[in-house]
Specification:
Elements (H helix, E strand, L loop, with lengths): L8 H11 L9 H10 L7 E6 L4 H14 L4 E4 L11 E3 L2 E2 L2 H15 L6 H16 L3 E5 L16 E4 L7 H4 L3 H8 L8 E4 L6 H10 L2 E4 L5 E5 L2 E6 L2 E7 L8 H14 L8 H10 L7 E3 L4 E5 L4 H12 L7 E6 L6 H7 L6 E4 L10 H10 L10 H11 L5 E6 L1 H14 L11
Parallel strand pairs: 1-5, 1-6, 2-5, 6-7, 7-8, 13-16, 14-15, 14-16
Antiparallel strand pairs: 2-3, 3-4, 9-10, 10-11, 12-13
């Protein structure tokens, strides 16, 4: 092969989806071998790795915003994406363009030889390649699945954060929180800051961190935070920040995520100095689509990628704290390997009408199957063929003062986000009679 294999990003991505025999194939051997050919020396920049069952994306966004406000050049890698693949790789707040990603893919393709790489491994290597080429000061990397054997873990983190430990991906990570916690603790490194933001850390996570000799920072023990009206404060040892603005991300749990991000930065304060003004600015400026994202109007829309019971419980709490004058309808789509019953239990009592949708693909789940689960739980459910149809059905039935919540898989939230301009052509019906 004399030139690049493909000329377009779509061409590369379509090929990557079929290159490796398994979509999820945990292990570090392939990535490390290719990375050693691409980048023989360790990264010249600081690396912060973020893992956890929920909250990873929020913490990456918070770290990115605060670090950029402090004047650092930041690379951020996240997954999955909502609307465009380019969202996964950001440099200084801007998504990588097609040409930059394609050049990285071509370099990876040349370096891999006969090794097969998964779609996620290709993307991870591309992010690492782009960040080094862009000369970032710090790379913030989101773990895709687990931690110990995730492709992101091929790079040694200067600070590693486990945001939360819940039950998810049990086929790969183990049947209980203790097993899953051990897998997530695999991103910790000896002598380096190891933040645990889960208030109830599994014993095996703590044991591994201590056995490793990591500098463990636990919420409620080594750092903590408290809300004070419309501000909050954070402290760790002799360090203290008062009068902090609430994070611009919606939901009360975001203060905990912000506190975890500050703990990671505290652990790196000698290498990444951050002044209080940058913390204030970052908290006020942070943005992240699809995480309790609110669109006000005659009918309020709320989009949230809560796709497991723990995340659904957080979504339910946030909805309870945001009163609705009318009814709440929910459009939900979940992949087949998710605990649908647990998700629905977490949302019990919040939703008046359900619109379960079918998600396509090998891991997809039929809306009719979700509807059966909902009805068995005593809920009113009308199965829909796709998200667009469900959005139109829910809005047609809505009245001013109602709200529509779209949640579950990224594959459910992304089409709703894309459909919002189209939905403006369908105003809500007349108000209900009192």
């Amino acid at each position: 092969m004399t030139g690049p294999r493909f000329a377009t990003l779509d061409g590369w991505l379509n090929w990557q989806e079929t290159l490796h025999p398994r979509a999820i194939d945990l292990g570090l051997e392939r990535v490390r071998a290719v990375l050693a050919r691409l980048q023989p020396a360790p990264p010249p920049h600081v690396v912060i790795t973020v893992g956890g069952t929920n909250g990873k994306g929020s913490c990456v966004a918070l770290l990115e915003a605060i670090l950029r406000a402090a004047g650092h050049r930041v690379g951020a890698y996240t997954s999955p994406h909502l609307l465009r693949y380019n969202e996964r790789i950001r440099v200084d707040g801007a998504d990588a363009d097609d040409a930059t990603i394609c050049r990285a893919f071509a370099r990876i393709d040349a370096a891999r030889g006969e090794r097969s790489l998964s779609y996620f491994e290709f993307g991870t290597l591309a992010a690492l390649d782009i960040f080094r080429d862009a000369g970032v000061d710090v790379a913030v990397l989101e773990v895709g699945l687990g931690g110990r054997l995730d492709a992101v873990n091929a790079v040694d983190a200067d600070a590693a954060l486990v945001v939360s430990v819940g039950i998810d991906h049990t086929d790969w990570l183990g049947p209980d929180r203790d097993s899953i916690g051990r897998e997530k603790a695999g991103i910790y490194r000896p002598g380096r800051p190891a933040i645990c933001a889960d208030p109830d850390p599994p014993p095996r996570l703590l044991h591994h961190a201590r056995q490793l000799g990591a500098r463990l920072l636990r919420v409620g023990l080594d750092y903590d935070f408290a809300r004070t009206g419309q501000t909050w404060r954070w402290w760790a040892g002799d360090s203290r920040l008062d009068g902090l603005p609430l994070p611009a991300l919606s939901g009360r749990h975001q203060i905990g995520n912000a506190a975890a991000a500050l703990a990671a930065l505290h652990g790196l304060r000698d290498r990444l100095p951050i002044v209080a003004a940058a913390v204030h600015a970052g908290l006020a400026q942070v943005r992240l689509p699809g995480r309790f994202q609110v669109f006000p109007g005659a009918v309020e829309w709320i989009l949230d990628v809560a796709h497991n019971p723990h995340a659904a419980a957080v979504l339910a709490d946030n909805l309870r704290e945001r009163p609705c004058a009318g009814q709440t309808s929910a459009i939900v789509g979940l992949l087949a390997d998710k605990d649908a019953e647990g998700v629905i239990r977490a949302m019990a009592g919040i939703v008046d009408a359900w619109y379960p949708v079918t998600l396509a693909g090998p891991r997809g789940r039929a809306g009719a199957e979700l509807a059966d689960i909902l009805r068995s739980a005593g809920a009113r459910a009308t199965a829909q063929e796709d998200v667009r149809e469900a959005c139109r059905s829910a809005l047609t039935a809505a009245r001013p003062g109602d709200r529509i919540v779209v949640f579950g898989s990224f594959h459910a939230v992304a089409p709703a986000l894309a459909a919002r301009p189209w939905l403006s052509h369908f105003p809500p019906s007349a108000p209900r009679e009192s």
